[in-house]
Structures are given as structure tokens and as C-alpha cells.
Amino acid sequence: METLDRPRRKTGRPLSFDRDTALSQAMLTFWRHGYESTSIADLTTAMGISPPSLYATFGDKKRLFREAVALYLSAEPPEQTIAAAPSAREAARRLLRASAEGVSGENTPTGCLLATSALSCSTAAADVQAELAAIRYGIEACLRDRIVADITAGTLPPDTDAEALAGHMMAMTQGLSTLARDGAPRDKLLRVADNAMWAWPPAIGSATSG
């Protein structure tokens, strides 16, 4: 998505801090508190830089957030996970399990950065909320297209509702984030993810859907 491309930094004096480390700390801060609840003071404290350095290097809070989201997604790009899977079903399974693991990391905040930030947005940050929704929709559309491809190939029943099935899987990932923030352990989240796959239609010639 274009809005998440890293903006080019103007040439000038060398940075007095490590940009990647600072960005990583910003990502964790947004992840923990959400976009709107995170203040510039929260960010500069976590990043170990001054407000002028933040603005000079990252532009402003919104641009910094976009970079943080891009960094968050780069760890395990969902579209790549879908493309690399041998089937739509396996793509969905991998997405769910990756979500369960990602929202329950030992060294990261619980929940999903995209979900946490979207829920905390007011009308004043409607553009940020819209961008996050577009990212989620892009992932859903990618999975839907993979499901359609399997239907066309004859490995899924022709009456499979690709849109509803992809939407169900995305809803489950959001639900896993909520469970994690409520304190659910990773073992439970993985079991919930596995159980969600029972909604998947059986492959042609298969006796089960789990």
C-alpha cells in the first residue's frame, strides 16, 4: 500500500541515534497503547530521542505510525504467507496460527497492532482508521482470491462462498487479538485457531473439513 512506503529522509547531519532501533521502539509503543492514545512524549521517551529529532527524522506522528505499521507487517507479510501456501486452506491455517503466535509474544505487547490502533481511533483520526481497514481488506482480498483459485481448480466445492469464508478467517484473527489482550495464553489461542478451521469446507474427495 502506497501510504506505508517509508518516506525518504532528507540528507544532512548524521543521525545521533539508530533509526531502526528508534522505529522499533515506536512500533512497540503504538502496539501497546494504540495510535491516538500514544503521545509524542510517550514516543520520544521510548525511542530515546527529542521531539525535534522525531519530527526531523520521521516527519510527524502519523508518518511515524505508518512506518511502524510497515515494520510490523514486514516480519511475516500476510500476502506472502498466502502465496507460499500449497492451498487456500493451508494459507488460512498459517495465517491463523501466525496471528495466535503474534498476538501472544513474550517480548511484545499482547494483541494486534492493527486492531488495537483501529479501535482507539476517533473521528479526528479517521484517515488512519481507514488506512488500517484498507490493509485488513487487502489481506482478506488476497485470501479470497486464493480461495477462488482453489474453487476454479476443483479442489474446493463450487458452491463455496469465497468472500464469506475469507471474511470469517479475518474475523477470527481479530478475535484472537481480543482474547490475547484479555489474557488468554498462547496454547488456548492456538487451539482456538485450529478449531476455527472446522468452518473450512472439505476439499473435493476429502471426508473432513478440520
Short characterization:
By secondary structure, the chain is mainly alpha-helical. It has helices spanning 19-33, 40-47, 51-58, 61-74, 78-84, 88-102, 113-119, 126-153, 162-181, 186-196. The radius of gyration is 19 Å and the shape is elongated.
The total beta strand count reads: 0
User: Kindly, what is the distance between the CA atoms of the first and last residues, rounded to a whole number of angstroms?
Assistant: 33 Å
Spans where pLDDT lies below 50 across 5 or more residues: 1-12
| Percent helix range | 55-70%
Enter the CATH topology name of the largest domain.
Tetracycline Repressor, domain 2
CATH architecture of the largest domain: Orthogonal Bundle
Q: What Rg do the Cα atoms give? A: 19 Å
Report the order of strands and helices.
HHHHHHHHHH
What top-tier CATH class of the largest domain fits best? Mainly Alpha
Estimate the mean pLDDT confidence. Answer: 88
- By DSSP (H or I, 4+ residues per run), the number of helices equals 10
* Count of separate structural domains: 2
Outline: elongated
Strand-pairing-aware structural class? mainly alpha
Largest sheet: none
The proportion of strand residues reads under 5%
